[in-house]
C-alpha cells in the first residue's frame, strides 16, 4: 500500500470513529433515561457551609459555628484550591428513604479526607461517623465501586437525619453528593461504567492511532494529538478507574497520579490548539511563552512531595488560562481575516471549543464559577470528537503535502530528463554530422580516384569502398528513422511471413565487407532453407522483416567495430514457437562498469583500441525492435575474449498483421 493509500485509510478510520463517537454521545445525552435521578446535595437538598481556616475544630464546635455563621447554598460546593476545611450541615427527611437504605455516592475522587456525621433529627443520641478519602488506607465505603458509596439506613423513628460533613483536600475543593435508591444506583452504575468503558476504549484507540501516525508521518500536530492521553488519564483517575483496577495500592497511587496529571493536563490540552492554528509561525512570541509554561511543569512537580502543590497548580493554571484567552482571541482574528476558510475553520473550531470548555473548567477548579455537570459532560465528549477531527484534518494535510512533494519531485525529474534530452540532442546532431561526413568523404574520394583507375582490380576496390560507405550511411539513416518510429505511440509492426535465411544472409554481408573479419554462419533446423537459398513459405516466421534486418545488422556491425579481427559467429536456431539469433565476436569484451549502459540511447561503451564510429543508437534500437516483437535482446556472455549477444524472438509475433 502506498503512502497516499495509507493516509486515505487512516482518514476513513478516523472519520468512522468520529461518527461512532458522535452516535454514542447522542445516545447518552439525548435518549430518555430509564433511571430516576438521585437527590443531589445543593439542587435537591439545601445546605449550610462554613470554612474552618485552621482545620482544628471539633464536631461540636463546627456545628455551633455553622448554626451562627454558616451560609446557605443551593449549588455544588466549589471552593477552588484552598487549605481551609469546609464544614457542611443539612437534613435528610425520612420520606427520601421510602422504607429502604439510601446509598450516598461521593464525588470526585481527588478529595483527601471526607468525614460524614449523622444522627436522628430529634437531636438526641450519638453521632454516627463514616470516613472516606483518597489518602486513607481503609476500604472506600460499603461497595467495591469507582467512587466511595456509603449505605445509610432509614431513621428508626425520627423524621429524618441531621448530617454534618467535614471536607479537607490539597486539590481543588469540589464536592458532589447523590443519594440513590439501591436498585436505581445499580442501573446507573452499570450504564455509567459501560459508557466510560466505551469512551476510554475509543480514546485509547484514537490515541494509539495518533501516535502511530505521528511516528510514521513525523507531524507535530499529530504528536500533540497523541499527548491527549494525559487528559484521558486524568479523567480516568477522577472517575475512579485507576483505583478500581488496582485494589490495595490503587487509591494512593491514584491520589498522586491526579496531582501529577493536573500539572500536565492544561499544557497538553493547549498544545493541540496551538499546533492546529500554527501558532509557532503566526505568533512566535506567544508560542515561546506557551512552551516556557510547559517546561515549567517539570520543576513544579517538586511541589507534590514538598507540600506547596496548591500554590504550584494555581500558578500553572493562571498562566495557561491567559494563554488560552489569547488563543481564543487569535482564533477569532484568524477566522475574520481569512473569511472562515473551510480548512482553517474546520481545523481550529474543535480546539476553540475544547479550549473554551477547558478555561471554564479551570475557573470551576479555581472556585470562580459554579460547577455545572453539563459542561463537564460536554468537555468529555468534545475531547474525543475534537481529537478525531483534528487527527483527520492533520492526516489530510500531510497527504496533500505528500502529493505536493511528489509532484515537485516529478517536475524536477521531468526537468532533468528534458535537460538531459537537450544535451543528448546536441551531442546527437554533432555525432550525426561527424558520422555522415566520414562515409561521404570516402565516397567522394573513391569517385575521384575512379577517374584515374588503370585496371579492373583498382576499380573493384574503389567500388567496394563506395559500397561499404553507402551501406554505412543507410544503416545510420535507418537507425535514426527506426528510433523515432519506436518512440511513437502508434507503433505498428508490419508482421508477415519472412524469410529468416535471407534476413541473416543480408545482415552478415557487413562482415564480408571487412578486410579483417570472417563469418561462421550456423542455421540449425534451417539447413533445408539455406540449401535451397530460402525458406518455404509455410515455414517462415511472422515478423517485421525490415526491422529485424536492421536489428541484426546493428549487432553484427558492433561486433565488427569492437573486434580487431577474427571470426564472427552468427547462429540461428528454432526451438518450438521461438527462435534465437546469436552474434559472437572475438573482441576484448565490455568493461563491467559499462555493461548497464550499452543498451541506453546515445550511450556507448569505451573501447581499449580507440574511438569507434557510431553514436549509441545501434544496440538500443535493436533491443527496442526485439521487445516490440515480444522478444528480447541480451548480453549473455562478456569475457576478455569476446561478447555474445542473443535475440530470443517469438516465431509468430503479431500474426494477423499487427504489432
From TrEMBL:
One of its GO terms (molecular function) is ATP binding. It comes from the Bacteria. Pfam families: 7TMR-DISMED2, HATPase_c, HisKA. SUPFAM superfamilies: ATPase domain of HSP90 chaperone/DNA topoisomerase II/histidine kinase (SSF55874), Homodimeric domain of signal transducing histidine kinase (SSF47384). PROSITE patterns: HIS_KIN. InterPro entries: 7TMR_DISM_rcpt_extracell_dom2, HATPase_C_sf, HATPase_dom, His_kinase_dom, HisK_dim/P_dom, HisK_dim/P_sf, Sensor_HK_Regulatory, Sig_transdc_His_kin-like_C. The chain crosses the membrane at residues 196-217, 224-246, 252-273, 285-306, 318-336, 343-366, 378-398. Residues 431-653 form the Histidine kinase domain. Its EC number is 2.7.13.3. This is histidine kinase. It comes from Salinicola lusitanus. The lineage of its organism: Bacteria, Pseudomonadati, Pseudomonadota, Gammaproteobacteria, Oceanospirillales.
